[in-house]
Specification:
heterodimer; A: 479 residues; alpha+beta; Uridine Diphospho-n-acetylenolpyruvylglucosamine Reductase, domain 2; Uridine Diphospho-n-acetylenolpyruvylglucosamine Reductase, domain 3; 7-stranded antiparallel β-sheet; 5-stranded antiparallel β-sheet; 20% strand; B: 5-stranded antiparallel β-sheet; 10 helices
Chain lengths: 479, 349
């Protein structure tokens, strides 16, 4: 879980070279600084040798260039909300925080785009867009803190994914810093020329900062819906709630959100927020529709019918905007509320074809029973994305090991039904050894060729995404 | 030479033969973008047309798995009984693989994004002749690099698509196109700007100038109640429509031919909405030549237009994209190409 601090300290000359680029105040190497940047939202702890916080794209580029020249590992970090260890400096070296690169450069209502720097926080963009009647649809649970650069690097999803898709569906172009410090533009940032050249934006989405750094992004923005309908539906079994979700999708209804919460989560949230949730219910389904008022009522009626036919015990419609906000506040507070049960959590995010959702929910429960651990289940059920929360006490090493074994079984079960080991959290360090379960040698070789072509010395976020055998870092000098 | 293998096995044989003969491979669909008159000895064009199988249509999963050689019209026919559709409207008789390499935007781009946004997974052949899969049958998947998007607008220079897993949607209940006659280009530009900024949620928005006059075309899709509400709002802005077409798919497919199969009489320009509308405001049009502005995809088609109109487009910041050589000289593409195809086995035209 942890690695020794002082992963190769940088010489005074090296620190000065970095300090000359970003300024002394933003080049930090004191133990307390390294401690602060040694972790993200995963259980992994790895210490950088130095932290730099550039304020301009040119500074980012110069740091990259310097790292390449010296073979220093470089991990780029937004807000550090990665749940898979994507934002920790596994091999030490330079950790670049983008938190000063947080400018919203332009909102263009005619083009329906926003030009942003990579360190802008997702929610800050939403707040800036709302007065104009627009939103940026990807809304990860971490949106209060997570940066758009991080969202792009991980291809973040969120609650609204069922209807609006995920980050990659809303990125029109990128300004990237390659390993030699050069800046290149992709997609619509090429302003018309993108039609007569390959669009390479896609390969950088979900690449977890291992191929290049995102400096700026041109994002597609979407008009805010005119109205909402939100339902909370109680079931006496988790299985039935999953069956209701599959039935809704099979009927061709595409809600904005379809979220499942299990018995333990309902109880934890009620204990935490006192919202009047039905403690004792086995499962609750949160369903939201959005659009123009007239189109919502017929869909809502169909959904209610499906829920009751699937065994819903009770159903409640949010009457006011406040009621609706409360429900979503509860859903977004899930991770925090679980701290009342156990101090630490491993959050998985296997994703399966929607027809296998119920089966997968049951399988996860069986895994929990078999390993005698607590797994709390919540899911972006509408897109088959499960978030089993495996709870453990860090002082109990055996329990942690059981959680790791349980995670491996959950991955295997998802792959068996045609799913994937990660729907939106990324591979990071956590799942890197499982890549050989999901991909063939040929496929990993192909990915490694891309990695070594764009980052031949392996400076960018080493040890992430590709298993060790496929990493290019053996060529790097290290720090 | 153009060959059409019908299986992965045949494909492999063709690949090995071409390689041993020292020829490059040019992945293609039906070859609409190929000019085989030049350099034809240099490469073997491998058409995906033979790989036109429908592996599965899964209504409960809202997806279909099909060969890259399937055409849009074949896909539409296969999906019709299910009530589902793939929300990409374009040239019906082109293959999915070919359209992927070309980078088809689709007539619904304004609301639905591009073709690649509706592909969940793909099987492809890499320049080493190996089969590589990416993505899969789930709506979300961030496992490994997103190789699915490598083929997008790459004209077969990086990978050859063999099959796709497509994300489907319920076919909209109604999908009308409303045409509104407009008196002047300046007024048209102003209305189009308003329609976008007011968030009408149209699938596409076009301005057409031809023998029938000048008119704004709006495509609405969805539930009856939704479309009716939008129609009322539009009428209050633009008065009663001059024409109404029930089937937007058919309507846009017809007009799309202009953009997807340009000839020497048609000049296609691309650029931002701002630049397109600036061009519209400054055009002098008296009906003697035709044009189409597609705000969804950011393109302008000038048909048999005078040089002055083309000059105006350039002055407004638009880029001429028809008849242009596909640009593969950028540093990023070069590095990626060298990495995955060091011997240049896949042709770059």
């Amino acid at each position: 879980m942890s690695s020794p601090a002082g992963h190769g300290n940088f010489s005074p000359q090296s620190l000065k070279a970095l300090s000359d680029i970003v300024g002394p105040a933003f080049c930090r190497s004191q133990p307390i600084d390294l401690e602060l940047y040694s972790y993200d939202s995963s259980p992994f702890i790895h210490y950088p040798s130095v932290v730099v916080i550039p304020g301009q794209v040119e500074e980012m580029a110069e740091v990259v260039s310097l790292c390449r020249r010296h073979g220093w590992p470089l991990t780029c970090r937004g807000a550090g909300t990665s749940l898979s260890g994507g934002a920790v400096a596994h091999r030490g070296g330079v950790l670049m925080s983008t938190t000063r690169m947080n400018r919203l450069l332009e909102i263009d209502l005619l083009e329906e785009t926003a030009l942003v720097e990579s360190g802008l926080v997702n929610l800050d963009l939403q707040k800036a867009l709302a007065p104009f009647g627009y939103m940026f649809p990807p809304d990860p649970a971490s949106q209060k803190a997570s940066t758009l650069g991080g969202n792009i690097a991980e291809n973040a999803g969120g609650i609204k994914g069922v209807k609006y898709g995920i980050t990659k569906h809303h990125v029109l172009g990128l300004e990237l810093i390659l390993d030699d410090g050069s800046l290149v533009k992709t997609g619509a940032l090429k302003k018309g020329f993108e039609f007569i050249a390959p669009d390479l934006t896609g390969i950088f989405l979900a690449s977890e900062g291992t191929l290049a750094l995102v400096a700026r992004a041109l994002l597609k923005i979407t008009p805010l819906p005119k109205s909402y309908k939100t339902l909370s539906v109680v079931f006496d079994s988790l299985l039935k709630s999953g069956q209701a979700v599959s039935a809704i999708i099979a009927q061709g209804i595409i809600p904005t959100a379809l979220e499942i919460m299990d018995r333990r989560l309902i109880a934890a949230l009620e204990d935490y927020l006192r919202l009047g949730f039905p403690v004792g219910a086995e499962a609750m389904l949160l369903i939201e529709l959005d659009g123009l008022g007239p189109e919502l009522d017929p869909q809502l009626a169909k959904i209610k019918d499906i829920c009751f036919r699937s065994g819903a015990v009770s159903l409640e419609e949010a009457e006011t905007a406040e009621d609706r906000e409360k429900l979503w506040l509860a859903r977004r507070s899930g991770n925090g509320a679980l701290g009342r049960i156990k101090p630490s959590t491993i959050v998985q995010d296997v994703t399966v074809p929607i027809v296998h959702l119920s089966k997968m929910l049951s399988l996860v429960q069986e895994v929990a029973d078999r390993h005698q651990i607590i797994i709390v289940q919540m899911a972006h059920a509408g897109d088959g994305n499960l978030h089993p929360h495996l709870l453990f006490d860090p002082s109990d090493g055996q329990e942690y090991l059981r959680c790791l074994k349980a995670s491996a079984e959950i991955f295997a079960a998802a792959l068996k039904v045609g799913g994937t080991i990660t729907g939106e959290h990324g591979i990071g360090l956590e799942k890197v050894t499982f890549m050989t379960d999901e991909f063939t040698k040929v496929e990993l070789d192909f990915m490694a060729a891309i990695k070594s072509g764009l980052d031949p010395t392996g400076i960018f976020n080493p040890d992430k995404v590709l298993p060790q055998k496929w990493q290019a870092y053996r060529k790097a000098k290290g720090s | 030479m153009v060959v059409k293998p019908k299986s992965h096995g045949q494909l492999k044989i063709v690949y090995l033969e071409a390689k041993s003969a020292g020829k490059s491979i040019l992945p293609c669909g039906l070859g609409h973008n190929l000019n085989l008159s030049t350099d034809h000895d240099r490469f073997v064009a491998i058409s995906s047309r033979g790989l036109n199988q429908i592996e599965s249509i899964e209504p409960d999963n809202l997806l279909a798995e099909v060969g890259a050689g399937l055409t849009l019209s074949e896909l539409e026919k296969a999906l019709a009984p299910t009530g589902l559709y793939w929300p990409i409207t374009g040239p019906y008789e082109r293959t999915l693989g070919g359209l992927m390499g070309q980078g088809l935007l689709g007539a619904e781009t304004m609301a639905k994004g591009t073709m690649v946004d509706w592909i969940l997974g793909t099987t492809m052949m890499n320049p080493a002749g190996e089969i590589v899969k990416s993505g899969g049958r789930t709506l979300k998947n961030v496992s490994g690099y997103d190789l699915t998007r490598l083929a997008w607008r790459a004209r077969g220079s990086l990978v050859m698509n063999l099959s796709f897993i497509l994300k489907l949607l319920p076919k909209p209940k109604i999908c009308p196109v409303m045409e509104f006659s407009i008196k002047s280009l300046k007024l048209a530009a102003s209305h189009m700007e308003t329609i976008i900024k007011e968030g009408f949620g149209v699938q596409n928005l076009r301005l057409i100038g031809d023998d029938k006059g000048l008119r704004i075309c709006l495509w609405l899709t969805g539930f009856v109640e939704y479309v009716s509400a939008q129609e009322e709002k539009l009428k209050s802005l633009l008065k009663d429509p001059s024409d109404l077409f029930e089937d937007g798919f058919e309507y846009f497919n017809h007009v799309d031919a202009i953009f997807n199969l340009p000839n020497e009489k048609i000049k296609i320009f691309a650029g931002s909405r701002k630049n397109l509308l600036e061009t519209v405001r400054n055009l002098s049009w008296i009906g003697d030549h035709h044009f189409v502005v597609d705000l969804g995809s950011g393109r302008l088609a000038l048909i048999s237009s005078p040089k002055s109109s083309e000059d105006l487009a350039f002055e407004s910041g638009l880029v001429l994209i028809s008849g242009q050589v596909f640009q593969t000289s950028g540093p990023l593409f070069r590095r990626l190409k060298t990495a995955i195809d060091p011997k240049g086995l896949f042709a770059t035209l």
